[in-house]
Design brief:
Strands 2, 4, 5, 6, 9, 10 and 11 form a seven-stranded mixed sheet that branches. Strands 1-3-8-7 form a four-stranded antiparallel sheet, with no helix packed on it. A hairpin with a 4-residue loop joins strand 7 and strand 8 (about 80-85). It starts with a strand and ends with a strand. It has strands at about 5, 10-15, 20-25, 35-40, 45-50, 60, 70-75, 80-85, 95-100, 115, 120-125. It is mostly beta strands.
Length: about 130
């Protein structure tokens, strides 16, 4: 049974940094694309970042993440990370980890995520 468990969320001031982690279990994830999505209060869940499997680990970012967030993965630990810098109040959301065996790049829609984590809350204060 595949499980994704996010951690690292919390309360941060604007301009601060946080690193989210998502540990996967139940399969061999070295051949899964892994990514992050977020859902702000009253809004739809949106794509944040994705990283492909394999040595190159191609990455793609949503517009809100470009230049501030960095996605990375450690296949030995079955873990994907999201380093978030220069946080803004509008980054406040529940952040979800997602995986799929297909890499969609920045056009990774919700219905194409095979497995989801339960999310971790990030709240950014001004």
């Amino acid at each position: 049974q595949v499980q994704l468990v996010e951690s690292g969320g919390g309360v941060a001031q604007a301009g601060a940094s946080l690193t989210l982690s998502c540990e996967a279990s139940g399969d061999t994830f070295s051949r899964y694309a892994m990514g992050w999505f977020r859902q702000a209060p009253g809004k739809e869940r949106e794509f944040v970042a994705a990283i492909n499997w394999g040595g190159r680990g191609d990455t793609h970012y949503g517009d809100s993440a470009k230049g501030r967030f960095t996605i990375s993965r450690d296949d030995a630990k079955n873990t994907v990370y999201l380093q978030m810098n220069s946080l803004k109040p509008e980054d406040t959301a529940i952040y979800y980890c997602g995986v799929d065996q297909v890499f969609y790049g920045s056009r990774w829609f919700l219905q194409d995520v095979r497995y989801w984590g339960k999310g971790t809350l990030v709240a950014v204060t001004s």
